[in-house]
Amino acid sequence: MATTTDFKAWAAAHQQRIETQLQAVLPSPEVAPPRLHQAMRYAVLGSGKRVRPLLAFAAGEITSADPARVAIAGAAVELIHAYSLVHDDLPCMDDDVLRRGKPTCHVEFDEATALLVGDALQSLAFQLLSEYRVADDTAVQLEMLKLLAAASGSRGMAGGQAIDLAAVGASLSLPELEFMHIHKTGAIIRAATLLGAHCGSRLEERAQAKLDHFAKCIGLAFQVVDDVLDTEANTATLGKTAGKDAQQNKPTYVTVLGTAESKKLAAGLREDALAALEGFGGRAQRLRELADFIVLRKF
Ligand code: GRG
Predict the structure, then answer these.
(1) Residue 96 belongs to what domain range?
(2) Which atom, in ligand 1's list, is nearest to the CA of 239?
(3) Residue 282 sits in a domain of what CATH number?
(4) pTM value?
């Protein structure tokens, strides 16, 4: 059985691997237009927990996926995530000045550049998934493209963001809040996990459904924890402005359930997620450890 130290070493090695992959696929700042490419690299490289690519690598271990393929799929997901952060920070959305411990993209560059950075990162993600072979079967690769597109679009992350923006100053019921978070945050986390698994051998239907359930639970748990951290952690630890939800009068798990109940909910989702992995044995060890990291993290 892997130890905590093993997990830290595994995570660090895979964070480095995804950093190298992202370095390689992002256009060089010398390539025209240099300012846009510089801004894309600024938004993506050098920081971020890389939780989504780590989930892809961990899920890939279940299906004995080639890590080189998972690195491409994980990079695609991270590019979508980075694009969402750049757009989310724009004045027309959350209007924030700090991200990943440094000035947001539109502050460091300008708004128009930040808008284009998001657009270009999103396109690059789909270019990667169509340019490189990430699955033996072309039909599976197409399925992967569809999965990431659906998770990013109006019935996934972008839709969740629309609900989030409309909810400012409003109150949401628990089911409405859950719907928003499953879309805004959960969809991409689910996609990362499933894409990692799709890079390897095909899972039988029951195992696929179990992995999907794990991914959904952990995607929602991620956001519940994010809501709690927004109230409990400080700006320096988070690398983004703490207390933003309250400042913007946004409904969150903390405002709807309270802190203690939110923590209980996150713990329950972790239990559910771990139970879904029971049949996978040692191959799912990294996924179990990531579930723990996501729920117990302090940043
Ligand atoms: C603009 C279409 C569009 C969507 C934006 C994901 C998102 C939707 C907005 C990000 C703002 C936010 C605080 C979302 C909630 C949770 C979340 C995704 C936090 C950031 O993810 P981490 O903690 O960040 O994985 P790092 O920097 O570690 O990658």
Answers:
(1) 5-296
(2) 27
(3) 1.10.600.10
(4) 0.96
